[in-house]
Design brief:
InterPro entries: AhpC/TSA, PRX-like1, Thioredoxin-like_sf, Thioredoxin_domain. Keywords: Signal. One of its GO terms (molecular function) is antioxidant activity. With 206 residues, this protein is α+β, with helices and mostly antiparallel strands. It folds into 2 domains: 30 residues; 173 residues, 3-Layer(aba) Sandwich (Glutaredoxin), CATH 3.40.30. The protein has 5 helices and 10 strands. The strands form 2 sheets. It has an 8-stranded mixed β-sheet. Strands 7-10 form a two-stranded antiparallel sheet. It is globular and about 45 Å long.
Amino acid sequence: MKTLKVLTLLAMIVVVSAFAVNTIDAVVDGYKVGDTATDFSLKNVDGKMVSLADYPKAKGFVVIFTCNSCPFSVANEDRIIALDKKYKNQGYPVIAINPNNPELKPEDSFENMKKRASSKNFTFPYLFDEGQEIYPQYGATKTPHTYVLQKTDKGNVVRYIGSIDDSSRDESAVSSKYVEDAIDALLANKEVPVTNTKAIGCSIKS
């Protein structure tokens, strides 16, 4: 009887462990290139709720998980502004999302997001992932972490995931502009030359 109880307990542990691993993998993995991203509704720094459906004329989106506190994000802010300026009118607006928990990173509170957006004159929405529900769906792990989506009949399909370019801290050293190359290819109805790169930045605080 004792042996049976031990075997039953071990079997339960295996089942629970397998479920836990699968759940963690599902959260960490997130979207892959070719997946269709679901829409979201998040609060912008102007207090309004924003979703991808609010852009009926868009051809796609540049969704960037970023924040106030990470030096890598700060180093990329001007590049993010430039991306929006260059591609918004061509149909690929930037949608920035702060995924961090402000209890762990007070610099990333909603009030500080509003101040940052104002001081940098952000030309794009800067959304707060309240409850941290959206970034796990995407599989974002860093700030910044970038996703280029293409609007299709099937929905917003992920075409690129990774870094903005190949120089995370020094814009003057950039030689490969991954996001720009991806959008240029999509606008020309061509295959994206590089679909995945490693996102380099600070870990998301949850």
